[in-house]
Amino acid sequence: MVKMTLIARVTDGLPLAEGLDDGRDLPDSDMYKQQVKSLFKNLSRGHNEASRMSVETGPYIFHYIIEGRVCYLTMCDRSYPKKLAFQYLEDLKNEFERVNGPNIETAARPYAFIKFDTFIQKTKKLYQDTRTQRNIAKLNDELYEVHQIMTRNVQEVLGVGEKLDQVSEMSSRLTSESRVYADKAKDLNRQALIRKWAPVAIVLGVVFLLFWVKNKLW
Amino acid sequence: MNTENRNFPARPPPPPFSSSPFASAPPPGVVPPQSGGPEAVGFRPPARPFTPSGPHMAQPAGVMRPAGQPPLVSQLPGSRPPPPSFPSTAYGPPGGGSFHRFPTPPPSGVPPPPQTLAGHLSPPMSFRPQQPMASVTMGPPPQSMTSGIPGGFASPSGPGFQQSMPGGPQPSYPGYPSNQVLQGPPKPFQSPSQGPPSAVSSYPPQTGGFAQHPGQQNMHPSYAPPPTSNVQGLVEDFNSLSLSNIPGSLEPGFDHTSFPRPLDGDVEPSSFAEAYPMNCHSRYLRLTTNAIPNSQSLASRWHLPLGAVVCPLAEAPEGEEVPLIDFGSSGIIRCRRCRTYVNPYVTFTDSGRKWRCNICSMLNEVPGEYFSHLDATGRRMDLDQRLELTKGSVEIIAPTEYMVRPPMPPIYFFLIDVSFSATKSGMLEVATQTIKSCLDNLPGYPRTQIGFITYDSTLHFYNMKSSLSQPQMMVVSDLDDIFVPLPDDLLVNLSESRNVVEAFLDSLPLMFQNNVNVESAFGPALKAAYMVMNQLGGKLLIFQNSLPSLGVGRLKLRGDDPRVYGTDKEYTLRVAEDTFYKQMAADCTKFQIGINVYAFSDKYTDIASLGTLAKYTGGQVYYYPGFQSSIHGDKLRHELARDLTRETAWESVMRIRCGKGIRFSSYHGNFMLRSTDLLALPAVDCDKAYAMQLTLEETLLTTQTVYFQVALLYTASCGERRIRVHTAVAPVVTDLGEMYRQADTGSIVSVYTRLAIEKTLSSKLDDARNVIQQKIVKALREYRNLNAVQHRLGSRLIYPESLKFLPLYGLAIGKSTPLQGGPADASLDERCAAGFTMMALPVKKLLKLLYPSLFRVDEWLLKPSADFDDLKDVLRRLPLAAESLDSRGLYIYDDGFRLVLWFGRMLSPDIAKNLLGADFAAELSRVTLQEQENGMSKKLMRLIKKVRENDPSYHPMCFLVRQGEQPREGFLLLRHLIEDQMGGSTSYVDWVLQLHRQIQQNA
Q1: Residues of B in contact with A36 (CB under 8 A)
Q2: Do B719 and A24 lie within an 8 Å CB cutoff?
Q3: Chain A closest CA to B528's CA: distance in Å?
Q4: Touching check for A117 and chain B: CB below 8 Å?
Q5: Is B625 helix (H, G, I), strand (E, B) or coil?
Q6: Are both A156 and A180 inside the same structural domain?
Q7: Pick from B225, B235, B71: nearest CA to B140
């Protein structure tokens, strides 16, 4: 069963449309939406992802397709047939490109095609029940192959970006720390020098002072 | 101060003024009255020195003066009208007009000469320059003129004024005509050289102002210009009513026709807007005073409320729409610390790389995309393209960060009572017809959603799935455990299910035609609606016809017990009885559901409880007592259509920010406060205004100016998330007099009305009225003390020019429906409904309701000319007193909610016949006004239509009443003539005397 549907532009992760009343009776829909958003962000950062992918998250699974720089994503129950989910996304894609195709690149504000939500809503209902004649027919349709679509875990997917970030962060931290180290070493050196010669210098100074005072007095 | 800087250059070189050349050479640029604002400042100081010479010049040759004077006077228009507005009708009774007695010799004595010229001038001079529009003080030079011939008070401005008049557009003298009462008997007004006729003809609309006093115009000629006309004592900062005969009888003591009356409606201090052209328009934000006190001690001496009235979505006239701005990739530019939006008052520094926030003076980086070089004067090169840096009001497209979910579609959900009374009164039919006719105009096509629940003793849900041809009805009779029988399709997309919805609306009245059920399961129905709507939110319209009697939220007939009235428990009747309502309202707000309540019953329906729903969800209450479709049908049709089709802002929140050291401490209106300063408004539109009060947090403000920024984040019906930002600035002053001068009566009255209505929810009506009275007394007493030192006040009631209408509006608040009289004067429901309505009204609308307009139309109807150009003439407002009504006339009373046509007893039968057709002699309560086949009737109907179109937010219903037709006449009209004494209430005259006495008590 389709839980939520989002459409976003891959180039900058800008959300273009979203299903209406998504997340109904979903206790932690906010968390999943957050995951979707970071997923989009990952995609927009240009990690080369397959154009079709399934991502597991908790009891649900995200399916998405990327086509024409637009990502169509839906979240379903794990038990929901993958085949139907992808057909649903195909349907959305075809309609979305037909209606909004030329304007996708120029859209500037978020949810610029929010009007599309009525279509999402309608299509969703068609796919709601897996046992309708229509859906069974689709399931049996051998033409549409989904076996080779990769399934990964959401932590993994989101992790890729995170790990890269971590590495670069670490290396930058390393450089800055080493610079600090060099500075500190220099400083210590100077201090050691001072510590070594300061007493001598002071004693000499006192002696000279005494000489000078003596000369002056007499 | 920036205004000063701006103004000084504009000031014409002083020399011409200082000597007689002045008279002969009026500075050319100054003459047009429009230029008043800025010029005023420039002018003033020079004018002072000039005054001494004034007498000499003017005395010998009255003719000369006019030539020289116009500049002086020309300042008036833009800014406040000068105190000595000659027109005040009071002059009428030359002898008896103790009213303006100010310097009239006998009673109050000759103008107090103790003040020498120099002494006088200095104080005004010292602060004048600070204020951009001090024109108030402008007009007449200081009183101290030794030659001060008492009579010559208002003189200089008088003639000059007339002169400049014809040249300048009249509108620019807005406040002028209102007959404020002035101290000086302005005899020179009619100085022959100017010729009275010209004066009269030159301001038709204005004369309307004083016309209350019929024959006043005729009197003008009788004023011979006193020999030394122009000497008028000091520049008074205030107006006064001379009430010297107080202890005695009212009668000839003074002339109450000259009391100030807002016959021109709401006059905004326009000079302020001129001084700060980048401020947002006053229709969006109005401060109670355009001068913010610099210290807490000063603020505490200003006894009037310190605050603002905000109407964030006010309708803008064509061509002045708020521009829409998209910041694109740079993101919205806001201050990092205080989150202020970029606005015209921020300053760019560091060759354009940084900008300084005007509210918290924090230095912020300018993002790369937004960078622009500065020119030599420090202005951005691209200033002309950046509307957000030049306009006080802008609308910004919000990026994703401002959304917690995708923008919601407009949703309208209807909760309709279908019990016996609803069908019998015809409400059901009118409502369904109206909804059907509005389907095409609902905002937000094609996303708009719509749904219905009806209820009597059971709940009826309707499945309106687009694939059905007829809606399916589902009945739920279990009221204790409400459930929604279908997961979806109760709320459907209108464009898809259009046919089903139409079929439903057609069949609904028929379905319940013979319903005899009289119960009302309102509470459970509300819960069900909430369950259907809470996914997305939207607007819930409730049509309630009787007292909720079943299930949760059932209400008792508590208004019936007469013993409660007058006791300390009285107020409990005006607050919600059951916490269920407040709780539901809170839940609804949380899920972005805004509720509008339409109540129709002729019996008690506990609007106090039902209205709570609207109050806390930012909605409003429409009340049609004793609804009959034949009578109220039109009103419901228009108001429901307006409600459905006006541009609405969804899921919005509003916040107002202000500079350091001050803080908005309380908010008044219909909304829910989400945190200390965030107003949650599930559905807000152009007809809603909110009042708020300020407090000073720091003992001393060091800044020169204070900035205010209103930000409303909302979803437009088209699915765009937007932020509407209004920015305004006000100077900080150290002088109490300046605060009074810059006061805005309309805004103050709005705040007071809301405070008074809130007060009725916790105490007796009497107490609420007294609170307002005390506040006004305190404010005026303070003002009196302020001026008592300089001037001999005698027994005059003095008030600043800017607040001249405050006493009258104070009286009007006490006589408004929510506060008037005792329990017998208005039914509990009417009171509460009016209270909820008035809490949300914008300033102009509220002022009109408080002091409705009354005008005479029979003469206009008889005039053959059919054109409408003279409409302004017709709509000349008269004072709201029974003596304005001439039994030979036909009058229209219009408070924005009702139109009452009053037929005088001696009105020519022809008119009545023409207007009412055959049944002109019948009892008017049964007659409705319809267009007849004759010119006169058509003319009247056009006029009424015009009046209605002027303000579409409510549809004023037309009532006809004949003089002497009791009790209808009293109920419809006489009771609303607020200047008269009715029952236990005071008349305007008594009220002023009462105020005056109280002011003097501790003065």
Answers
A1: none
A2: no
A3: 17
A4: yes
A5: coil
A6: no
A7: B235
Domain final position from A135, A160, A185: A160
Whether residues A87 and A175 share a domain: the answer is no
**Cα angle for residues A143, A144, A150 (degrees, 5° grid):** 140
Our count of domains for chain A comes to 2
- Two structure tokens written together for B891: 């009058």
Those residues of chain B whose CB sits closer than 8 Å to some CB in chain A are 326, 328, 397-400, 403, 405-407, 409, 446-447, 493, 495-496, 535-536, 719-721
Res A124 pLDDT > 90 = no
Angstrom distance (rounded) from CA B11 to CA B75: 12
A-chain residue closest to B492, CA distance: A118
Task: Report CB contact under 8 Å: B403, A114.
Answer: no
Whether B664 and B751 have beta carbons less than 8 Å apart is answered as: no
Amino acid letter at B234?
Answer: L
CATH of the domain at A154: 3.30.450.50
Q: Report the amino acid identity of residue B512.
A: F
Contact B536 A21 (CB under 8 A): yes
What would the pLDDT profile of A150-186 be if each residue is shown by its tens digit?
777 777 777 766 777 888 899 999 999 999 999 999 9
CA angle B370, B372, B377 (to 5 degrees): 140
Does the CB of A14 have a partner CB in chain B at under 8 Å?
A: yes
Beta strands A52-57 and A150-153 are parallel
Cβ neighbour number for residue B504 with a 10 Å cutoff: 23
Whether the ω angle into residue B967 lies within 30 degrees of 0, i.e. cis, is: yes
The tally of CA atoms less than 13 A away on the side-chain side of residue A37 is: 14
Q: Which residue matches tokens 């049609």? A: B624
At which of A111, A126, A160 does a domain end? A160
Q: Is B905 helix (H, G, I), strand (E, B) or coil?
A: coil
d(CA B28, CA B33): 12
Check whether residue A74 and residue A21 sit in a common domain: yes
- Co-location of A115 and A171 in the same domain: no
CA distance to B283, B594, B678, B729, per residue, from B664 (Å): 20, 25, 11, 15
* A99 and chain B in contact, CB less than 8 A: no
CB contact under 8 A, A21 and B447: no
Q: What is the ipTM of this complex?
A: 0.71
Task: Kindly state the helix (H) or strand (E) to which residue B768 belongs, with its residue range.
Answer: helix B765-788
* Domain match, A71 and A134 both: yes
The set of residues, in sequence order, having a beta carbon less than 8 Å from that of B56 and lying 6+ positions away, is: none
Q: Are residues A174 and A129 in the same domain?
A: no
Distance from A170 to chain B by nearest Cα, in Å?
Answer: 28
Whole-angstrom Cα distance, residue A63 to residue A6? Answer: 11
What residues make up the domain containing A17? 2-160
Q: Based on the domain organization, do A168 and A122 belong to the same domain?
A: no
Q: Using one digit for the tens of pLDDT, what is the confidence trace for B371-402? A: 988 888 888 888 888 899 999 999 999 988 88
Q: What is the pLDDT of residues B360-374, one digit of tens each?
A: 889 999 998 889 888
Residues A120 and A190 in one domain: no
